[in-house]
């Protein structure tokens, strides 16, 4: 689709190969949008022969009817189009002697200059290079901004281009009629790309582009990346019927038939002065939040803005808050089922936020999981647990190993994995102080680096615990694929003790199976005596739950641990 076609390689004056500049335009594909002029210059008599003019040049009286030679062309551009600052300088800077000297030296002459247009000041580029004979030179005048503004694959605007064009356009729209910024994105596009290859992926993007255009009739459209499109759409076109037609699609060619969903986020424009990039991100946020129940279409509302800003504030506050000790570990003791003695504890993060009070992990961990910052929390928890236990040890006080929860993100972060391994190597008998929990769902998607990290910890004697076992798509192969030391039964099962025979049977057989593979079993979320009695009878090794202890502060934990 490119506008350039490669011609043969040429060697220039000094012997250097100007491979970057050896592209000549394929005139048949020239669009008025990017090229203002394409012409040949004869260095002997300075005459020019034109191949192409843009409408913009013609409208300003610059054409082969009015221009006789190169000097006249540059002078006319200066007089009629140049911005004030450059009216005097352009004829000198782009004079033919300068051009020829640059080409002798560097193989090419390139200068940017600025012109006034009805849409405002724009940057153009004059590029001249050697032609087919020694006296002939090829020249192009290109609108650089249009090239930057353009997505060459789909012929739509690029991200910058859309932002600029849409900002300008909404100023001239009567917003009382109703217009929206829409953000579209194919659900699970990556899966399609992985299964059918990039080429088919591109075809699906074209398909999406045409669906969006045909149904929504956007005034402007841009492609931001891969399958992500953004549009300026009259609200009249956002009918329920249209939105449903967009959502549920089938892509078909000779080989593939594939059902897919286009997700759409809508931001109603209220104010023509609102920043376009911000409006696009609100539409994207609405797209992000939509679910299958909403037919993958979501309209941005003020609650989304509030939630988003709250999360952004938390993200902004994280580093400060860690320094100010606002993020702290709580400890939930784990007891031996038979003796009720504390045998370990799970470290659970809390945020004692300076203005919002004590925050539970679900309020902030999801945001940090998205941006990778969660590893800072992992590090803080590792340090807290180790420092706490090492201090107690140094005082001759009782210690129990405390579990730190690893996030899926940690397994993609070599720095945190290294940090943990190095800290543990530096401590004698670190297994007396720390263990790690991995949830079943993050284990399921682990790649080699993550598995190796867990193996390395095990080689250092550290216990690895499989958390929330049975909560999701548990599979026996999880247990087969890694030698877990402890299995933690999900509280979903525990809460059904006494009411569901099936859950009870699953608990009994999981405990048996755990023991069969040499692992101990913890039951999580134990709240009643009846649950405890059942677990004792079923042979469960350890219990964690409100029946014994809720998560408590470090001071309270130190107290219950005793001497
Ligand atoms: P989890 O690792 O499964 O932790 C157990 C959760 O169950 C804790 O919630 C705990 O307070 C709660 N719980 C314990 N016993 C009972 C009970 O008897 N009844 C009920 N209803 N709940 C009980 P919490 O502290 O809100 O943590 C929620 C989740 O947040 C954790 O689930 C874990 O996935 C995550 N999390 C907490 N701290 C960290 C951390 O430092 N790092 C990472 N990566 N994740 C953490
Ligand atoms: Mg856990
Ligand atoms: Mg758990």
TrEMBL record:
GO terms for molecular function: cyclic-guanylate-specific phosphodiesterase activity. It comes from the Bacteria. Residues 1-23 are annotated as: Disordered. Residues 177-302 form the GGDEF domain. Residues 311-563 form the EAL domain. Residues 1-11 have a biased composition (Basic and acidic residues). PROSITE patterns: EAL, GGDEF. This is EAL domain-containing protein. It comes from Candidatus Weimeria bifida.
């Amino acid at each position: 689709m490119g506008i350039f076609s490669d011609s043969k390689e040429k060697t220039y004056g000094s012997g250097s190969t100007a491979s970057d500049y050896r592209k000549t335009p394929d005139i048949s594909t020239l669009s008025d949008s990017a090229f203002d002029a394409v012409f040949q210059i004869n260095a002997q008599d300075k005459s020019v022969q034109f191949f192409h003019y843009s409408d913009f040049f013609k409208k300003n009286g610059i054409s082969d009817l009015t221009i006789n030679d190169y000097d006249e062309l540059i002078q006319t551009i200066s007089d009629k189009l140049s911005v004030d600052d450059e009216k005097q300088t352009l004829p000198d800077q782009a004079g033919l002697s300068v051009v020829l000297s640059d080409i002798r030296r560097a193989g090419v002459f390139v200068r940017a200059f600025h012109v006034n247009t009805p849409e405002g000041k724009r940057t153009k580029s004059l590029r001249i290079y050697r032609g087919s004979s020694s006296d002939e030179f090829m020249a192009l005048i290109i609108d650089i901004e249009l090239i930057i503004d353009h997505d060459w694959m789909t012929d739509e605007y690029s991200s910058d281009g859309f932002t600029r064009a849409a900002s300008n356009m909404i100023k001239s729209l009567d917003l009382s009629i109703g217009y929206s910024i829409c953000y579209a994105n194919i659900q699970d596009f990556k899966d399609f790309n992985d299964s059918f290859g990039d080429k088919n992926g591109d075809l699906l993007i074209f398909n999406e582009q045409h669906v969006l255009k045909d149904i929504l009739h956007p005034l402007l459209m841009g492609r931001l990346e891969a399958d992500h499109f953004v549009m300026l759409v009259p609200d009249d076109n956002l009918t329920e019927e249209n939105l449903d037609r967009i959502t549920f699609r089938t892509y078909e060619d000779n080989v593939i038939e594939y059902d897919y969903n286009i997700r759409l986020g809508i931001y109603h424009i209220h104010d023509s002065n609102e920043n376009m990039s911000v409006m696009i991100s609100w539409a994207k946020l609405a797209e992000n939040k939509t679910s299958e129940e909403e037919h993958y279409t979501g309209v941005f509302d003020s609650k989304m803005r509030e939630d988003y800003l709250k999360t952004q504030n938390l993200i902004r506050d994280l580093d400060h808050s860690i320094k100010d000790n606002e993020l702290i570990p709580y400890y939930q003791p784990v007891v031996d089922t038979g003796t009720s003695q504390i045998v370990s504890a799970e470290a659970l993060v809390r945020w004692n936020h300076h203005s919002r009070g004590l925050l539970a992990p679900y309020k902030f961990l999801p945001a940090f999981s998205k941006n990778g910052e969660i590893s800072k929390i992992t590090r803080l928890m590792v340090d807290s647990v180790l420092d706490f236990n090492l201090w107690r040890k140094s005082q001759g006080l009782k210690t129990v190993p405390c579990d730190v929860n690893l996030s899926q993100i940690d397994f993609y972060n070599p720095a945190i994995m290294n940090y943990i391994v190095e800290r543990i190597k530096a401590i004698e008998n670190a297994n007396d102080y720390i263990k790690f929990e991995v949830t079943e769902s993050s284990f399921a998607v682990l790649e080699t680096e993550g598995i190796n990290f867990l193996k390395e910890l095990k080689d250092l004697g550290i216990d690895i615990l499989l958390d929330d076992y049975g909560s999701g798509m548990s599979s026996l192969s999880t247990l087969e694929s890694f030698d877990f030391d402890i299995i933690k039964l999900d509280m979903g099962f525990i809460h059904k003790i006494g009411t569901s025979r099936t859950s009870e049977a699953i608990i009994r057989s999981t405990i048996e199976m755990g023991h069969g593979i040499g692992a101990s079993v913890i039951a999580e979320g134990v709240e009643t005596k009846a649950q405890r009695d059942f677990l004792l009878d079923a042979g469960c090794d350890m219990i964690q739950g409100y029946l014994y202890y809720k998560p408590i502060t470090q001071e309270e934990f130190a107290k219950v641990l005793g001497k």
